[in-house]
Design a protein that fits this description.
By secondary structure, this protein is an all-alpha fold. It is 72% helix and 0% strand.
């Protein structure tokens, strides 16, 4: 009799646990197609050997002939046209990622594209401030529309920006405006409306990105003796730590104060290059760190949005490398490009 009772209890417990676990598993299974697809797409242009091969090209025409990719398309006759085609490819890739992923996380990919397009918004605002001709370099339709409205009605640019979600004070100086545009782009990512179960992965990514923007601003500011504009608290660096870093006079001391954070080793290993090349060495080290963080998030969230986060970050860096290659070949600066690209 006792055996039967225990068997019934066991079945009841198993059923209850199964009912509790089943919905999340069903939810996560929605990512199986997209994550498998993202994992199957190669990251060719983060490989040092491949970038070195492309940099051997003697002309842009030779580069196009040497270029093979399933993702990126190189088209055009000059450096600007080729770089524009790389940007177009990147936005098409991320839009593909959005369409292949569950609709519940589409807003993340939309916000990521807004972050990428913030460069065009910033350039338009700075041209307006400098009373120069405004070029519309935006990739997203809403930003294209916004910039066209600003071009047609410059006096009301502040209100037009706000109408499209860009809360930028045009009375500030150029450095502050650049920082505020980047902050707004980050805010788009912070404010994405997605299921709670995926929010932690995105929070870690976005707040780590804030850490890295803060560190770049501090290191650049100290090195070039220029104003430092921060982006708020991030993942590992609270306000008190940022204040501590701001008080330090020498860049090497900043690196020492970061011991105990995930940023320390990458920066410590870049000290020798910093002594030869300056702040760019630390910026490159921090770029490598954001790649590492994106991959850690993917490993921690293999059945959710983590793989998608890793995918778009890797593709963004591939695009940046390719644009650097195009510029280097056009300007005969291949050796400089080898120093600047983020490769592994």
């Amino acid at each position: 009799m006792e055996t039967i009772i225990f068997a019934i209890i066991g079945i009841a417990i198993s059923t209850a646990v199964g009912i509790k676990i089943l919905p999340p598993l069903v939810y996560l299974s929605k990512f199986s197609y997209s994550n498998a697809k993202f994992s199957a797409i190669p990251i060719t242009f983060l490989k040092e050997k491949e970038i070195a091969r492309l940099l051997e090209s003697k002309s842009l025409e030779e580069l196009k002939n040497n270029f093979y990719s399933r993702d990126f398309i190189l088209k055009g006759e000059n450096a600007k046209e080729l770089q524009d085609s790389i940007d177009e490819s990147l936005f098409r890739i991320i839009n593909m990622a959005k369409n292949d992923s569950p609709k519940s996380v589409a807003s993340f990919y939309e916000a990521y594209m807004k972050k990428l397009d913030s460069y065009a918004v910033k350039e338009a605002i700075l041209a307006l401030k400098g009373e120069r001709e405004i070029e519309n370099k935006a990739m997203l339709e809403e930003n294209k529309e916004m910039i066209e409205k600003i071009k047609a009605n410059k006096e009301n640019a502040q209100e037009i920006l706000k109408e499209y979600g860009w809360n930028i004070n045009l009375q500030k100086n150029e450095e502050e405006i650049e920082r505020d545009v980047e902050k707004q782009a980050i805010r788009f990512l912070i404010e994405v409306k997605i299921p709670k179960g995926y929010k932690k992965a995105i929070d870690r990514f976005v707040k780590s990105l804030i850490d890295i923007l803060n560190l770049k601003a501090i290191l650049r500011g100290k090195y070039y003796d220029m104003p430092i504009y921060l982006y708020g608290e991030g993942w590992e660096l609270p306000e008190w730590k940022l204040k501590e870093l701001m008080k330090v006079e020498h860049v090497n001391e900043i690196v020492s104060l970061l011991e105990g954070t995930s940023y320390f080793n990458y920066l410590k290993n870049a000290v020798a290059d910093f002594e030869k090349y300056g702040a760019e060495a630390f910026e490159k080290a921090l770029d490598k760190q954001i790649l590492k963080i994106a991959r850690e998030i993917a490993n921690d969230n293999p059945l959710g949005i983590g793989v998608g986060i890793r995918f778009v970050v890797e593709k963004e860096f591939e695009a940046r490398n390719l644009k650097a290659v195009v510029k280097a070949i056009a300007e005969k600066m291949q050796e400089l490009a080898k120093r600047l690209v983020v490769v592994e």
